[in-house]
Amino acid sequence: MALKFVLKCSTVFPTVIDVKITGAMRTDCGFICILCALEIVRTTRPAADYKSPHGKGAATQDWMEMSHEYVENPLILPEIPVGWDQKDFKLNFHGDPLKFKLRRAPIPTIGSPWPKPQKHVKDSKVLYRLRKDRLVIKRTEIECPTLQEGIERYKEQIFTCLNYSHDNNLRNIYDRDLRKTMISSKRLLGEIPLLTLLIVNITRCSFWPSLESNESYQLSSTADGIELLAEDVWGALRGLETLSQIIFCSQNTILIRKTKIEDFPRFRHRGIMVDTARHYIEKETLFQIMRGMEMNKFNVLHWHITDDQSFPYESRTFPELSKKGAFHPLLVYSQTDIKDILEFGRQRGIRVVPEIDTPAHVFSWSFGKPELLTQCYNSGEIVPALMGPLNPARNSTYSFLQDLYKEILSVFKDQLVHIGGDEVPFQCWYSNPEVVNFAKHLAKQFGSRTTDMKSVLKYFTKRFVDGILKEAASRENKVRLMVWEDSFSKDLFLPENTVVQLWYTGTQVIPDIVRRNLSVVFSSCWYVDLVEPGIKWHKFYNCDPEGPRSIPGVLGGEVCAWGEHITNKDILLRIWPISSAAAERLWSAKSVTNVEEAAPRLEEHRCRMLRRGVPVSSASGPGFCETQHASKPEQSQNRREININYAPQKQYICNKSLMEFTVMLFFCGILGFLYIVQRSKKRHYFKCFSR
């Protein structure tokens, strides 16, 4: 006779046991049946028999994690024969006398937030399930459209399954001891308790974010549900982002660990500077940059709109500046575009700080308003078309600037306005007879014996700044000026509370700036346009805006993406994920400096950004992210999705009905074995009797 058993499980490929029993194999068949049944019993646990060691309302996660340390850094384990070396960012092999190393990114974590919260307590063995159709969201009674829009936006992200099998080929590393570290059991996800309540409470709903905005929040997930508390809506948005990151997916099931988070930013000003004058950056690309900023908890888009190369800002007051000064008449930011960009940022708690650089970096102004600039000379002769900085000798220059900035202050809503002030070349001023005579007039007026263009620059800055402050006097939130550090180093007039942006010196000058009642935004070590190919994010990560000690007066920092060699096509790849390293430095505690611990979390965050549609480049070398198969759990139950997260597993049969069949097979094997033994005894008896 022949027996054929087909064993199926929803999570593994069908297992087929095909046994043909002949007269010569009857004894072997009984043993085979018993061994097969024992193996299936060993690898099978019925749902009805499973009880959580954590009691009702909790479930273990040993099918995904080995320990808390595994979550933090899954490769650095003594049992596993490989490790990730932060010195040269390669895999090394424990006990290898040849010191062979392999370029490979570290294995990502699962459900770890970026940037790291200030306080984060989690029970990695306690899991809860979420379902979109069963989750009830209770919001604060305060009417807050910004919060409602944020909840709807994050619901779509939370309930899209972005990882499934947590596979990685490093699980197949050949080593006889590696199997010992693999997970030894697997639970049915249906047993994990379901959370049905999300509470979001705020006490204030500000319309525009500001430098004084409160971004703190408290987030917890327990058997009673998920609760998010924040004073202002901006803290709730940061909490929703964290919630979306600690939630993960396996087998098309949305999961969250038992968690308690208390979080707030270390610095108030956490920005990215984008240069749209050297290469025109499309509005949708700016949206993509801000989507990435939201995921990394940046809150300032410093928009360097104009420069020597182009003037893409479409001014209502002076339309000829963009008509003639933009690269092309179509490559401009209309007033509608600007409103869209401001609103897109506002909904995500991102402030947009405009920069119209003066008095240098203005060559593109000469196309539409040549009378504003200084004509350059050579040996007393005009150099055709060569125009230098703004002409400080003409009253019309100051009246123009006052009218232009009156418009800027009405269009842009943030308190901060960046006026530039960097890299002012004096050569053209020295060559121009009009400016030289003006300098002599200033020297005579102020009793100076020398004709110094530095005095001209001081006069220009004082008169220009006074004009802006006059226009801002009637503004509801006034204005706070922001300048490049050149203005400070040249000892120019700067009102109290002016923000000085450092770009070429280190933190050693900060005390001198603070003593003048000025504030600091640090950028010197965060220039993405200067980053060479290779693993460089750790340099951004190790750079601290305050240096080794905390210094009052440092508002934060900005990552700068100057556009000379960055285009609309590659700006996102140049910014991300290296800017994420600066994001954690600006948000997380000063003590969070462990590159080795951060690397696996950054790998997960990199893939998370890709899955949400934000283009990013490599972070730590060779690796992979599968981004093609996001699914809605309620709609696509059978789609297999791949994620780079490392959780070495064996495939186990896990169906209750299969267990019942296995027990039956076990007893059939025993009966078959006894039957064969009995037949053998009778045959031996008859042989003896015949003798």
Task: Report on this structure.
- This protein is α/β, with parallel strands linked by helices and 691 residues long.
- The protein folds into three domains: 2-44 and 666-690, no CATH class; 50-266 and 590-651, Chitobiase, domain 2 (2-Layer Sandwich); 269-435 and 481-587, TIM Barrel.
- It is built from 19 helices and 23 strands.
- Strands 6, 7, 8, 9, 10, 11, 12 and 13 form an eight-stranded mixed β-sheet that branches.
- It is elongated.
- The relative contact order is 0.14.
- Mean pLDDT is 82; it is low at 1-32, 37-80, 176-187, 630-656 and 685-691.
The CATH fourth-level homologous superfamily of the largest domain = Chitobiase/beta-hexosaminidase domain 2-like
Average pLDDT figure = 82
What count of domains describes the coordinates?
3
Poorly predicted ranges:
1-32, 37-80, 176-187, 630-656, 685-691
Helical fraction: 25-40%
Strand content: 15-25%
CATH architecture of the largest domain: 2-Layer Sandwich
Q: State the CATH topology of the largest domain.
A: Chitobiase, domain 2
Class inferred from helices and paired strands: alpha/beta
- Please report the number of helical segments: 19
Overall geometry: elongated
Gyration radius (Cα, Å) is 33 Å
Tell me the span between the first and last alpha carbons.
Answer: 32 Å
Q: What about the largest sheet?
A: 8 strands, mixed
The count of DSSP E runs of length 2 or more, i.e. the number of strands, is 23
CATH class of the largest domain: Alpha Beta
